[in-house]
């Protein structure tokens, strides 16, 4: 497979490289160092990203209908209202602080019937923006289907590692977009997946390179 240079591609070229083969489609975008650290010394993925990763990140956000993210990642990474709807997953039904004053409809909460903060979140976001999908945990297959029924058929997952693991385990993920930055950190850092073991084969779709950074597109 040809290794293409990111600098040779226009924004229109990138849109073509990362076009969804079919709909509905759920891709997850993650980043790590060469030795597998998914966060930098500051405990955030933003501590290891670079210009090349940011360019593909912007492309994926431009192409998607909605962004799917775990509540913990949204809190840790300081998520704010985005240009596309944010779908936040939380078993407790807790809206991250920086999203509590978001424009109505710009944040959806995916949670479960047993969520302790369900009533509060319905009052905060509006009941129509709170998706109750399961009793004690969020049914990720139903989440994908429910969002598609709302016209959100091209989904971009942005982690964290527990959510990626669960999406893979439940067979919901169609694609992994994984940036490997040319750094070694050692120490105790999260990986791009976390949780009980899963064994999911991947098929390489494309690889881009930019000053040692590798940006791979893998089909599940």
Structural description of this entry:
The protein is an alpha/beta fold. It folds into two domains: 23-65 and 155-220, Dihydrofolate Reductase, subunit A, CATH 3.40.430; 67-152, 3-Layer(aba) Sandwich (Dihydrofolate Reductase, subunit A). The protein is 24% helix and 25% strand. It is built from six helices and ten strands, in the order βαβαβαββαβαβαβββ. It has helices spanning 11-17, 51-63, 71-76, 118-125, 140-149, 161-169, and strands spanning 3-5, 25-33, 66-70, 86-89, 107-111, 130-132, 154-157, 175-181, 203-210, 213-219. A ten-stranded mixed sheet has the order 1-9-10-8-2-7-3-4-5-6, with helices on both faces. Helix 4 (118-125) links the parallel strand 5 and strand 6 (130-132). The two termini are 18 Å apart.
Unreliable stretches: none
Mean pLDDT: 96
Choose one word for the global shape. globular
Which range does the strand content fall in?
25-35%
CATH superfamily of the largest domain: Dihydrofolate Reductase, subunit A
Largest sheet properties: 10 strands, mixed
Q: Given the helix and strand composition, which structural class is it?
A: alpha/beta
**With helices defined by DSSP (H or I, 4 residues minimum), what is the helix count?**
6
Query: What's the CATH first level of the largest domain?
Result: Alpha Beta
Secondary-structure arrangement, i.e. CATH architecture of the largest domain: 3-Layer(aba) Sandwich
The number of domains = 2
Distance between the termini: 18 Å
List the helices and strands in order: EHEHEHEEHEHEHEEE
The radius of gyration over CA amounts to: 17 Å
CATH topology of the largest domain: Dihydrofolate Reductase, subunit A
- Helix percent band: 10-25%
How are the strands of the largest sheet arranged? 1-9-10-8-2-7-3-4-5-6
